[in-house]
Design a protein that fits this description.
The protein contains 15 helices and 31 strands. The chain is an alpha+beta fold. Strands 3, 7, 8, 9, 10, 11, 12, 21 and 24 form a nine-stranded mixed beta sheet that branches. The chain has a five-stranded mixed beta sheet with strand order 16-14-15-17-20, covered by helices on one side. It has a five-stranded mixed beta sheet with strand order 28-27-29-30-31, with helices on both faces.
């Protein structure tokens, strides 16, 4: 392909709303284009990368005997009602009606449809194990889409499903898919961690996520170097603390003007933030809940979601705080609470003595508050965000906290869907039993972002040798020089005939302009024809991925490029 004919348009301008490197560089390098919030077109260069990613995924799915099909984008309401997810899935489920008033959703995931398909055709355990997969456009009505393809509303996903006769066989299938995922990410050149994770809205018995480390991912996960424990931070349990040994001091009311934040209150009173009891008012299905946590810790809303069992909750607004507690944010506490407010204590608060607690009156706090003496504890729950250095739940040693991008998520569903939808098989004894299922997702379009997040520098993208828009870029530094242009065309044609995926930059532009574009787009190998070629017949081969440069004779070029691409 010649650059002058290829739909590839780069930009010098930094996108104003792009924060993550992958979002910024994929836009600037002409791989994607934004249509609306969280909705992107994948342009020809990006599409070529996407197809190479899909090729690796398909090869590994076929290797384990997984058969490809294509399910529908529109899912009828009736299927989702069978599992209870029509209402339970939440606002991310995009619902719509056809001209006859029949209700559908844009499938964010396809457990219901694949289970319905299975029950239509499969009757006996003799047809199992059965593995099916698709590569499909999905849609989730994300509340806050961000970071480009990392958290988009419309995205491309590979989802696979396994069907087995019992839990023992389902666990074998789970292991088979887990190993296939490890091979996929290794072949794509991605660093990933396989971590324990929540089953969330999908449900089932347990799950694992494959997370690619990046500062701009939406997932936080922990590592324990001592025992090897890894998990998404939202499921890492933090146990109750120990009872502090200090002597209880007399309760005292103090005036605390202009102290709406924990930091301001800490400085005003001269106490550590961990000695302040932070109170947050949440509304769950119209009911008020007061969550109490140590002042130096933060509430993990994923844990709050797990506590409530759904997403139908929010942090109370200023107006709701005034209406329910007759106070303002910054002065919410456990004293003088209305009877309808339920109180939940985070585990971090257990055993603490001589705390600072707001009075539910603007400008006042109690000091030396001691639970058990001044009021009862009530219900405890683990609602605290995990932090660096927290104890490992397995061995007690300090945890490392990392951030990353979830690329894959696998679930052992068990009979979660088959039981609800009547997907039954006859076993060896002729008895009808629910089929055991697993589901296995990969964010295909997200992989573009992950590859860039892990391979870029100040000049642009650095695609690896296996996944790229083109393997080789030929740059003719002066297309007006007939001899140089003719030689460039000859090399271009030869590389194409030898099976290389090659782009020829035949544009009539300055050398500096071409090099900047080449750096930005990030094709791993580029062959430069300029002054050295005219004088010495030497080609300069620049390795963008490894940031190296070589001088190569034309007759040795094909072998040299093949050797590098195999390395």
């Amino acid at each position: 392909m010649r650059w002058s004919n290829f739909f590839l348009f780069t930009s010098k301008e930094e996108p104003s709303d792009a924060v993550s490197p992958s979002h910024r560089l994929l836009l600037r390098a002409g791989f994607i284009s934004q249509v609306s919030s969280g909705i992107y077109e994948i342009l020809p260069a990006g599409f070529k990368v996407l197809k190479k990613v899909e090729k690796v995924i398909r090869e590994e799915m076929e290797r384990i005997g997984c058969q490809e099909l294509l399910l529908t984008v529109l899912n009828p309401k009736e299927l989702w009602e069978e599992t209870g997810r029509w209402e339970a899935y939440g606002k991310e489920l995009f619902k719509l009606k056809d001209r006859n008033g029949r209700e559908f959703c844009l499938g964010p995931t396809h457990e219901e449809e694949i289970t319905d398909l299975f029950r239509k055709f499969v009757r006996s355990y003799r047809s199992l194990p059965l593995y099916l997969y698709q590569v499909q456009v999905k849609f989730r009505d994300e509340k806050r889409p961000r970071f480009g393809l990392i958290r988009a509303r419309e995205f491309i996903m590979k989802d696979a499903y396994s069907f087995d006769r019992d839990e023992g066989e389902a666990l074998k299938s789970y292991k088979t898919f887990k190993e296939a995922y490890e091979r996929i990410f290794k072949r794509l050149g991605l660093e990933t961690y396989c971590v324990e994770a929540s089953v969330g809205q999908i449900g089932g018995k347990f799950s694992n996520e494959f997370i690619a480390p990046t500062p701009f991912g939406e997932a936080h996960f922990v590592l324990c170097k001592s025992c090897g424990y890894t998990a998404n931070s939202e499921i890492v349990p933090l146990k109750r603390g120990e009872l502090e040994g200090e002597e209880e001091k007399p309760l005292k009311l103090v005036e605390t003007p202009n102290t709406r934040t924990i930091k301001e209150l800490s400085q005003f009173l001269g106490v550590k933030e961990e000695k302040i009891l932070k109170a947050l008012l949440y509304i769950h299905k119209g009911e008020p809940y007061l969550i109490l946590i140590r002042g130096d810790r933060e509430v993990d809303e994923k844990k709050v979601e797990a506590f409530f069992g759904d997403e139908d909750f929010h942090l109370a607004s200023e107006e709701e705080v005034r209406e329910i507690l007759n106070t303002e944010k910054g002065f919410v506490g456990i004293f003088n609470l209305p009877k309808n407010v339920k109180v939940v204590w985070d585990n971090s608060t257990y055993g603490k003595k001589n705390l600072v607690v707001a009075l539910n009156k603007v400008g006042y706090h109690y000091i030396n508050v001691n639970p058990g003496r001044d009021f009862n504890y009530g219900q405890f729950a683990d609602l605290c965000k995990v932090e660096e250095g927290d104890p490992c739940p397995k061995c007690g040693k300090p945890l490392q906290l990392k951030r990353g991008l979830e690329l894959g998520h696998i679930f052992l569903l068990g009979d979660r869907y088959s039981k609800a939808m009547g997907a039954l098989i006859s076993d060896e004894r002729g008895k009808e039993v629910p089929v055991y299922m697993g589901c296995y997702g990969i964010g295909v379009s997200r992989i573009l972002s992950a590859l860039v997040e892990q391979n870029y520098d100040e000049r642009g993208i650095r695609w690896n040798y296996k996944v790229n828009p083109f393997e080789v870029l030929i740059i003719c530094l002066n297309v007006r020089d007939e001899e140089l242009l003719k030689s460039s065309l000859r090399i271009y044609q030869r590389l194409k005939e030898e099976g290389f995926d090659v782009l020829f930059d035949d544009r009539d532009e300055r050398a500096g302009f071409k090099f900047k574009d080449a750096d930005l787009v990030g094709i791993p190998l580029r062959v430069v024809l300029g002054k050295k070629y005219k004088e010495k017949k030497l080609l300069e081969v620049q390795d963008r991925y490894r940031d190296r440069s070589y001088e190569v004779k034309e007759e040795n070029l094909v072998k040299f490029l093949r050797d590098v691409l195999k390395s």
